[in-house]
Specification:
Layout lengths: L10 E11 L3 H12 L4 E5 L24 H14 L3 E4 L3 E5 L5 E5 L4 E9 L3 E3 L15 E2 L2 H4 L7 E5 L3 H10 L5 E5 L9 H8 L4 E4 L2 E7 L6 E6 L5 E5 L2 E4 L3 E3 L29 E3 L11 H23 L4 H8 L10
Parallel strand pairs: 1-2, 1-6, 2-3, 6-17, 8-15, 9-10, 9-15, 10-11
Antiparallel strand pairs: 4-5, 5-6, 7-16, 12-13, 13-14
The chain binds flavin-adenine dinucleotide (FAD).
Amino acid sequence: MESSNGHTDSGDTSVWDVLIIGGGPAGLAAALYAARAMRKTLVLEKVMPGGQIATTSEVEDYPGILMTTGPELSMQLMEHAQHFGAQVEIGEQVTKVKLDGKVKKVKTESGRTFSTRSVILATGAEPRTLGVPGEDKLRGYGVSYCAVCDGPFFRDRPVAVVGGGDAAFDEALYLTKYASTVYLIHRRDEFRAQKVLVDRARANDKMQFILDTVVDSISGDKAVTGAMLRNLKTGETRELPLGGLFVYIGNIPSTNLLEQYVEIDDSGYIEVDATMATGCPGVYVAGDVRKSPLKQIVTAGSDGSIAALSADKYLDYLAEELSPEEAERLAEAPENWEESY
Ligand SMILES: Cc1cc2nc3c(=O)[nH]c(=O)nc-3n(C[C@H](O)[C@H](O)[C@H](O)COP(=O)(O)OP(=O)(O)OC[C@H]3O[C@@H](n4cnc5c(N)ncnc54)[C@H](O)[C@@H]3O)c2cc1C
């Protein structure tokens, strides 16, 4: 059968040592470490290498690199992993997994099935968006979902943060270091955020609260110049001049593939131990999809490297138990494995 990306196999019968789902910073760092440890390594990425940073204009907080662009760093991360022998397949969205047993199965939307001894899930998270006019067009040009990443670009300019939870307050306070004014725009007049954060924000001269209000659209041609606001109680609308707008209305971690295998916390993130192990033998999780205090390129890379090391140790252990012949036989096991899921 020919798949949408030109591959002609409906089933790849070779057994990978480490199969990584997601080609963002966590997945590509894991690939680099796994391949460098001489493991047969495959990355399946549904869209493009780099994940969330692929569309980020400037990155200036990755240690050792003073300034780069998201697309450039994305390509470097992929090429680095490939340099050590990792295979990276772009345009392959994983739709189904069977993770129990010594040889695991992974199926993609294009109809291909892969067999692997270990899996690293590095599917990241997607910021919840406002879904208003101007947001998509100005993403990376003043619309941001990451104050730690982009705050320093807004020195002495007015910015707004949309949201009322801990993340919105944390990031708004962080932005007061740089911006001239930080407007916190929230649809209600009370907050989900912890009282200590709210008190700290209220005590900060640079913070201004705009409550009972939503953003109807974001203005700007090449960069954000303002936002059209609507008061939900009075219906009054007005344009607020801004240099940047930060959206903190939650993230959607991409955990759906693993939901039946691992523990998911109340916010939807996967909980793992310090080795990135999930409790499901041979299955590891890295990057923004896991519960962690900071979600950045450097932490995603760190997670990926730890997950690869853990997979490497697991493979050593497995080698004592599983002969190459038995692995091949298990890899060819029933084509209809996914029907039982
Ligand atoms: C606008 C923006 C700017 C940022 N700027 C910075 C910055 O300057 N510095 C910094 O340190 N951090 C920055 N961050 C945060 C940083 O990008 C993330 O912390 C980091 O990308 C997380 O890496 P990850 O690999 O865990 O996940 P992601 O980057 O989310 O990558 C996950 C990948 O998995 C793929 N995937 C998901 N599901 C599947 C599937 N089923 N099959 C195959 N592939 C799948 C996705 O397509 C994606 O490519 C920024 C984030 C945003 C949104």
